[in-house]
Design a protein that fits this description.
- This protein is of the alpha/beta class and 492 residues long.
- The chain contains twelve helices and twelve strands.
- The longest helix has 32 residues.
- The strands form two sheets. The protein has a ten-stranded mixed beta sheet, sandwiched between helices. Strands 6-7 form a two-stranded antiparallel ribbon.
- Helix 6 packs across helix 7 and helix 7 packs parallel to helix 8.
- Helices cover 31% and strands 12% of the residues.
Amino acid sequence: MIAPALARLYKRGALLLCVAGLTLLGWRVYDSERGPALQPWHLRAPHELSIEQIDRADWASWLQAEERVFGEVEREVSDTLDPSQVPPFNRYRKDSRVYPPHFATDWNRSYLLRPQGSPRGVVVLLHGLTDSPYSLRHIARRYVAHGYLAIGLRLPGHGTVPAGLTEVQWQDWLAATRLALRTARAEVPAPAPLHIVGYSNGGALAVKYALDALSDPQLPQAQRLVLISPMIGVAPSARFAGLAAWPAVVPAFSKAAWLNLRPEYNPFKYNSFPVNGARQSWRLTEALQGQLQALAADPRLLQLPPILGFQSLTDATVSTQAVVTGLFRRLPANGSELVIFDLNRTSDFDGLLDPSSLTSLASLLPAPPRNYSTRGLSNADSPSHHLEELSTAALSLDSQRRPLDLAFPPGVFSLSHVALPFPVSDSLYGSQPDPDEDFGLHLGSLAARGERGVLVVPMDELMRLTANPFYPYLIRRIESDIDQATVPSLIR
């Protein structure tokens, strides 16, 4: 009697799961079909080099292949557009103000910036998901001013058309990272210092590469990693992102392969976002976390280069908690440091902040002593509302407080994931854009006010902070370590 009852229960459960799955798929089809139509930049992915080809390539052949990729985008997308069907502010229209090839420098492409005289060191810069080499150009220039050769890498699938992210795999990004590091050492041989700067998804790639280099002597090892809003962990729901694209196996429902279909007005970043992009980011962070766990008791981890990390306490793109528990908590005492930017704690925002966002610096960090140094920037206890730096050295129980000549601008309640690498003078994202550069529009200085439903851009995108009012502090911390060529004596 029990067995038939269990069988009926299992059948009922399976039926409920089937109905729920079909309901979710139906809702996904309905939701995706409500969006705008797919455009050529969503449908025509250029042909990038394979992993095997990238691993055989040098910098010259990489640039040649990149030239072919951009030529393909011009022929298959830009040359096919009907101006009457495409808004004037579109990065693929040749007569648009935001058409990247018209600028003095197209920062969608990989670049190599040389200092005056012989390089004293070399840095590789890895941008984030949907981004381009543009995002780290300011930091690259500071390295060059210090005598370093700067290599800004365009990761496969980026800088061209959003469709490029529908086919890319995270292993393609890692292969390109290996290419950039080979190039770095070919241009500036050891023992000159080698640094890696990684932003967001590029931060995950920087750490993954550094871990791989611990067990592969053929990979040049860096002397320092600089991570900005690193994608060490993402929302758990990203694990199931691939399910959202299932209806796209039927051509009539191909829009289901996209999480966002937005106007492409930004010359150096995609606004549309395919499901595969989210899927590959999750797979990269999963591989990274697994590798960190596997190396937890491995003496090779002692050879990991020091990491200087910058993270906003609140971040809607990556997990701040994962940066602390998934990365820094696992590090040996190797001279690493984590800088956290707090929320604006002034009374102007009392009662308006979401309680789920009110994590404090103290609750985020484990109790000292820690294997890494920490610096928290906050105005929580500042009578003047200026920021104070609360620093705790590695392996120390004591903290020091230092006032800073920095304050949140009026109306700014926090930093954002996308703001950290950009100064307020950035021509595209800055609130005080440099008048000597023009990229067609000034996203950071827009103060949109009006009725809902008028703009083609969601209002929350325009409200998101796109430049860092504390960039001078960030760049000073980076510059203080630029000339450090060896592993600190702490682990010798």
